[in-house]
UniProtKB/TrEMBL annotation:
Keywords: DNA replication, DNA-binding, Nucleus. Residues 8-366 form the Origin recognition complex subunit 3 N-terminal domain. This is Uncharacterized protein. It comes from Nadsonia fulvescens var. elongata DSM 6958. It holds the Pfam family ORC3_N.
Length: 765
């Protein structure tokens, strides 16, 4: 049997959707004597026909993962997957945060130094203002402002007030926000001993006067009286306007004038964030206002290029790193190029990949196997690997390919042992995991070497970043690509100086590149020393400087003198590097148990980050359990939300839907419950309504019934309904559901038949 034809018959899991002809319905009692126990029993019998869930939730709320393999996964193994995910992502998150912070570290220090500059109590001077240009990408602004706030919080006696245009509709609101921020900080301050009387008086200021800056003057004086600062000059009150472009110009101008009028009494510093250009911002502000500002420009280095983060995460394979599959990686890169300009979506996609891999892959624990100690290896397998794991491993595509290769080679006894004896499968785990880990490290190292070579050689015309090289590399197509062949030709025609630079980069690379460098030294050590001496001698004498410039202009058409001296050595090294690339750039699917390390479910990312509206709405209406979670499972009646039931009936109907028929089908789908009446409803609320004479007792009870239907609280409130009461309640639910479907654009009024509504036909329904 051909392997591809046999895949459908040996799938490890299936995704089943309910057909429109067999929708799950709430039990409909035959008569009114059926009890709650009968309802629950019938619900359990009906649930037998539902698809068994792949995972069972863990009772411990601190572990959001589930026990996989139909719930047969040991609890300790599920906890291990959760711990491994936290460790793996924390490693990546630390590197990302460090990279993002270091990008603007110099500018942040400059802003802190600017704020700490001396303050002069003189109303004639201009306001010291930092004009920050964070770039046009607004999605990066929030992270930048958080970095600025954290940096200023490290300084002593700096009080930062952040203003946003949405909270500042007028000048009074702006001043109130500033004063309130200072006084709220004062109120939260912990005093040792009794609170001074003048502080008590200040904290009792009427809120209607909180827009008076005289309060700030008194507050600054009080800081000196309390001994928190030696003088007012040690204080800094920093007003940060995060979106100056969105501020009403008249309000911003009045704020600047107000700050300037109190500059001789309050140590103000101003921070203005400008997303546009300085010229546009100056045109908006009145000239009288500009004359009051002593601005200092700070340009922020925005990291819109996610390449730097990818280099530190995707292209830095470690013990806790997973590989992104080709489909998923292509999806992420394409979205970064066409839809987003920020690094935040890339970070979110990377985090979701790690979370999904450890959440849904029971074999992700195998990456924990790194020890060479056989006893530790055996103990790990005994604790975490069950027969269910072994059976699932046999169903993996990589294992099937492995068996196919053994069948082709005639090793039938080996095939029989692998299919029947579990110990033969477990013996492959450690070897396969270590083999794939070495393959991944070699793949990443070879990619970095390609990047080194094309960035070092001066005669390379076509250069591509690693994010574009990764996809053909992991698929095994890069070794035979025209790009790599042209690169090797350029490498062979390079100068001795370029070759030595590449070797120096290998020396400072990762472990595998260092090993390659040591192999070159061992094989060609003496000849490389002679080459280095000749290059140094030529540089010192400046003999070949002009020749190198001419050669660069000719784009390599003429062999350089240094390469003519050592043509054999350069070709030998290029040949070894080419063979190294051919050995590294092989398809990942050729490795046994590659599923342990590779995550390649691109459709999940598509549904989460860029979902299509229609499929998302359809899925939510047809399968509400995917979105409601525990609240759906706790539903004592086992009923879908009313809009879901109406939508199921909507799909089964024609273009025109008779309202009465739709309502009767909806009512029959629900079934009238019979619940024992108790006295647990809120009597206080009832008495309040009676006193006001707003609603009668019976109406209050009906409202409570409608509100709590299908919930645990509702079980203690419902009483037995008459048919008329039940019809009224179901009619309310029906009207609500129809209104929601109309709001979604699924139905509209029929102008010809008033008793019907008309489907707004969606393609595919």
């Amino acid at each position: 049997m051909v392997l591809d034809e046999d895949l459908d018959a040996q799938k490890t899991c299936y995704f089943l959707s309910r057909s429109t002809d067999n929708q799950k319905r709430t039990y409909q009692p035959d008569n009114e004597t059926d009890s709650v126990e009968t309802l629950n029993k019938t619900k359990k019998e009906r649930d037998i026909f539902d698809v068994e869930p792949e995972g069972i939730p863990i009772q411990d709320s601190s572990i959001p993962f589930v026990q996989l393999l139909g719930g047969s996964e040991p609890l300790e193994t599920a906890k291990l997957r959760w711990d491994m995910y936290q460790e793996a992502w924390q490693t990546q998150q630390t590197k990302i945060n460090e990279l993002l912070y270091n990008t603007n570290l110099k500018v942040l220090d400059q802003i802190a130094d600017f704020v700490n500059e001396s303050w002069v109590a003189d109303s004639e001077i201009r306001i010291p203002s930092a004009i920050i240009f964070p770039g046009s990408n607004i999605s990066n602004h929030l992270r930048l402002f958080s970095q600025i706030n954290r940096r200023l919080e490290q300084e002593k006696h700096i009080y930062l007030i952040t203003l946003a245009s949405r909270d500042c509709s007028n000048l009074k609101a702006v001043l109130r926000n500033i004063v309130s921020a200072i006084l709220d900080d004062e109120r939260n301050h912990i005093f040792e001993g009794a609170v001074p009387s003048f502080i008590k008086r200040q904290l009792k200021h009427n809120r209607t006067f909180r827009y008076d800056f005289d309060i700030l003057v008194d507050w600054c004086i009080n800081q000196v009286k309390l001994g928190r600062v030696n003088s007012i000059t040690d204080l800094r009150i920093v007003i940060s306007v995060q979106d100056s472009d969105s501020f009403d110009i008249s309000i911003l101008s009045q704020l600047i004038e107000m700050v300037h009028s109190y500059l001789d009494q309050v140590p103000f510093k101003l921070i203005l964030s400008v997303a546009t250009s300085l010229e546009i911002f100056q045109e908006k502000l009145p000239k009288s206002c500009i004359r009051l500002i002593n601005g200092k420009r700070f340009d922020i280095e925005t990291m819109d290029n996610f390449q730097q983060i990818a280099d530190q995460t995707v292209f830095a394979f470690e013990a806790t790193t997973i590989l992104l599959g080709p489909k998923l990686f292509e999806n992420i890169i394409q979205r970064q190029k066409t839809s987003t300009e920020s690094v935040d979506p890339f970070i979110s996609s990377l985090k979701y990949s790690y979370m999904s891999h450890y959440y849904s892959n029971p074999f992700s624990i195998l990456t924990q196997i790194t020890s060479e100690d056989n006893e530790a290896y055996e103990a790990f397998l005994k604790m975490h690997i069950t027969q269910k794991h072994i059976a699932a491993l046999r169903m993996l595509p990589s294992f099937k390919n492995f068996i196919e290769e053994k069948v082709k080679s005639g090793d039938f006894n080996g095939v029989k042992n692998l299919l029947e004896l579990d110990e033969h499968v477990t013996s492959l785990i450690h070897v396969s995991v270590e083999d794939f880990r070495e393959y991944a490290q070699n793949l990443i190292s070879a990619l970095k070497l390609v990047d080194f070579i094309q960035n070092t050689l001066s005669n390379v015309v076509q250069k591509k970043p690693m994010v574009e090289l990764y996809l053909p590399a992991i698929l095994g197509k890069l070794a035979d690509s025209a790009l790599l062949k042209e690169l090797m030709v350029s490498f062979a025609n390079s100068t001795a100086k370029d070759l030595l630079q590449v070797l120096d980069l290998l020396k400072f690379g990762d472990k595998f590149n260092k090993q390659l460098h040591e192999a070159f030294l061992e094989e060609f050590g003496d000849r490389l020393d002679i080459m280095a001496a000749e290059v140094k001698k030529a540089e010192n004498a400046e003999i070949i400087a002009d020749d190198l410039s001419m050669a660069a202009r000719r784009h390599g058409t003429v062999q350089r003198e240094s390469s003519k001296v050592f043509p054999g050595l350069i070709k030998e090294i290029v040949g070894i590097v080419s063979q190294y690339f051919f050995g590294c750039f092989t398809p990942y699917m050729n490795r046994l148990f590659w599923e342990v390390f590779v995550y390649d479910f691109s459709h999940l990312h598509q549904n989460v980050f860029v979902p299509h509206q229609r499929p998302a709405i359809e899925n939510a209406l047809l399968e509400p359990s995917h979105y409601l979670g525990s609240s759906y499972l706790n539903n004592k009646f086992g009923s879908d939300p009313h809009i879901s039931i109406l939508y199921s009936l909507y799909r089964e109907s024609g273009v025109q839907i008779n309202i009465y028929d739709w309502f009767m089908a909806f009512k029959d789908s629900l079934g009238k419950p019979k619940i024992i009446k108790t006295q647990s409803h809120d009597s206080s609320g009832k008495e309040t309504l009676k006193a006001e004479g707003a609603i009668a007792d019976s109406e209050i009870e009906r409202m409570a019934k409608v509100t709590h239907y299908g919930t645990e609280e509702g079980l203690s409130i419902f009483e037995e309904y008459t048919e008329e009461e039940w019809s009224k309640i179901t009619l309310c639910w029906f009207y609500q559901g129809v209104a929601e479907l109309r709001l979604l654009g699924l139905i509209r009024d029929n102008r010809r038949k008033y008793e019907c509504v008309e489907k707004v036909i969606w393609k595919g329904l």
